[in-house]
C-alpha cells in the first residue's frame, strides 16, 4: 500500500505512461542483404532528397565547369611568359599575360563565391528537409518505440546523424563534380601539349583506386560504429545530467561509478575516431606516393626531351603545373570515395529510422467529428503488448508472445456520456492499459472499442485525441514559461480563458504572485514547481483544452495536506460534466464515482456503486478493507454508507 492509502495502476508509470517491459522489437523493414544492392538502394534514396533542388544544382554544376576551365589557363600564361615574352623581351606581352593571370584568379574567385553560396543554400535545405521529415515521422511512432529506445539515442539520430550527413549534401557531391570537371579539363590541356608525356602521367592513375576501395570499406564500418557509440554516450549523458538523474546519482552516491561508465563510453568514441583518422592518414600517404611517382616520370622523360630540344622549358614547366591539377583531383576523388562510404553508414542509420512502421494504421476514410457525446463500449477487448520479433524476421509487424499473459483478456465494459467511472484493482490488473486504448495509443489485439458507436480505428487520430484530455500521475512541463505550457493545450485560447482555467484549478493566485507571473520559466520538466503546483497547472491545462472525455490518474497521495486539498478541489471542477475514466487512488474519488469498475487479471471482475459493491463478498470489499478501512475510521460515520464526501 502506498503512503496515504490507495492502490496503484497495473504497472508503474513514467510521465503518466505505463512502463511496459519486454517491448524491445525491430521496427524496421527488411533491408537488401546484398551489399551492392543495398548500396544502390542507398544511393537512390539519397538522390531523392537532392531531386527537389535540381535547378540550383544545375547552376552549381555550371559554376564548377566554368571554374575548372579557368583553372587550366594560368599554366599556358606561364608557358607564354617563359618561352615568348621573356626571350623576345616583349614587355607588352609580359604585362598582358601577367594581368591575365590576375584576372583569371579574380574571375575564378567570384565564380567560386557564387558556387559556395548556392551549395550552402541547397545543402542546408536538404538537411532541413531531412531533419523535419525524420522528426515528423518519429511523432507517428507508437509508444512502444519510445519506451524501448533511449531519448538520447533518438536525439542522436535526429541531430548528430543528420549533421554528419551534411558533408554529402554540401561537400561530397560538389567535390565529385568539381574534381571530375577539373580532371577532364586538365587531361584535354595535357594532351594538347604533349600526348606522350600525358600517357606516361596517367599510367599511375589505376593505382589510386585499389587503396581507396580497401580503406573505404574500413571507413564505412568504423563510421557506423562511431555513430552508434556517440548515440550511446549521448543517451547516457541525457539520463545522468538530467535533474532527476543527477538527484538520484547523489542520493545513492554513484558519482564515481557513473564517471567511470562515462569515461568508458567516451574512450570507445575516442578510439574509434582515432582509428578513422589513422586510416585516412594511411590512405593519404599511399596516394601521395603515387602522386609523386607521376611527376618524377614526367620530369625524367620530359627533361630528356628538353635536352634533345624536342620540348621547350616553358612547356615542361606548364606541363608540370598542370600535373598538379591532374593528381590533386585524383587524390581528392579517392578520398571522396572513402568519405562516401562513411556517409553511407550515416544515411543507413537515418533511413533505418525512416523505415520504421508507424505505430497504428490509418483508416481510409477517417471520421472527424466536431463534437462527441462520450459513450464508450469495450467489446470483448483483448490486448497484449508487442514484443521483440524473432531474429531474421525484422518485418516491422508487431509481434506478440503467447507465453506472456495478455494485459486485457476479453474485457467488456460500457460507459455512458457524462459518467464518472473509477477503475480499481490490484497492481497488474490492466487499469492503465485500458486507459491507453481510449485515445488510441494502442489498438486491441482482438475485440473493439467504440466511441459513440464508431470503432476507434475509424477515427482520425488527431480528431479523436482533440476530444480527450489526460491528467497523469507525473506532470510533464516543458522548459518554458507557464504561459507556453498552458497554451500548449489550446494555442488559440485568449488570456481571459487561460486565467479562468487557472482560477478554476486554484493555481492563478500562485502564478500571479511569481515575479514574472505567467511568463515565469518553470525549468526542466517543471522542477522549479512543487508537486502540488505542477499538478494544478496540469489540471488548468486540461480545463483549457475542455475535453469531452477525461482520463485521470490521480497523484495526490504524496502531496502535503494543503496541496492535496487544493488539487482535489481542482479535480472536482475538472471532472464535472465530463465522461471520465479515473484510476482511483483516493477514497473520495471512489465514493464519488457513478460507477466503480473492479478489474483483476485483465478482466472486469465486478462493477457498481460503492454502496452496491461493499455489500458483496468480492474483490472490491477485500481491497477496500485492506486499504481504506483505516481512512473510514477517521471520518464521520455517515460517509461509510457510500454517499459522496467533499474533496
Give a structural overview.
The protein has 2 domains: 35-354, ABC transporter transmembrane region fold; 374-385 and 404-467 and 575-647, 3-Layer(aba) Sandwich (Rossmann fold). It is built from 23 helices and 12 strands. The protein has 647 residues and is an alpha/beta fold. Helix 6 (151-164) packs antiparallel against helix 12 (313-354). The longest helix is centred in the middle third of the chain and has 53 residues, at 255-307.
Tell me the structural class: alpha/beta
Distance between the termini: 21 Å
Under CATH, the topology of the largest domain is which?
A: ABC transporter transmembrane region fold
Total number of beta strands? 12
Question: Low-confidence stretches at least 5 residues in length (pLDDT < 50)?
Answer: 1-33, 388-403, 635-647
Strand order across the largest sheet: 8-9-10-5-11-12
Q: What's the CATH architecture of the largest domain?
A: Up-down Bundle
CATH class of the largest domain: Mainly Alpha
Number of helices: 23
Number of domains: 2
Helix content: 55-70%
Quote the beta fraction: 5-15%
Look at the structure and give the mean pLDDT: 76
Helices, strands, pairings?
Blueprint: E1 13-14, E2 17-18, H1 35-50, H2 54-71, H3 73-85, H4 91-139, H5 143-147, H6 151-164, H7 166-193, H8 195-202, H9 209-240, H10 243-251, H11 255-307, H12 313-354, E3 376-383, E4 408-415, E5 420-425, H13 431-437, E6 446-451, E7 454-455, H14 461-465, E8 468-471, H15 482-487, H16 495-504, H17 508-512, H18 531-545, E9 549-553, H19 561-575, E10 579-583, H20 587-592, E11 595-600, E12 603-608, H21 610-614, H22 619-627, H23 629-632
Parallel strand pairs: 5-10, 5-11, 8-9, 9-10
Antiparallel strand pairs: 1-2, 3-4, 3-6, 6-7, 11-12
Helix pairs in contact: 1-12, 2-4, 2-7, 3-4, 3-12, 4-6, 4-7, 6-9, 6-12, 7-8, 7-12, 8-11, 9-11, 9-12, 11-12, 16-18, 18-19
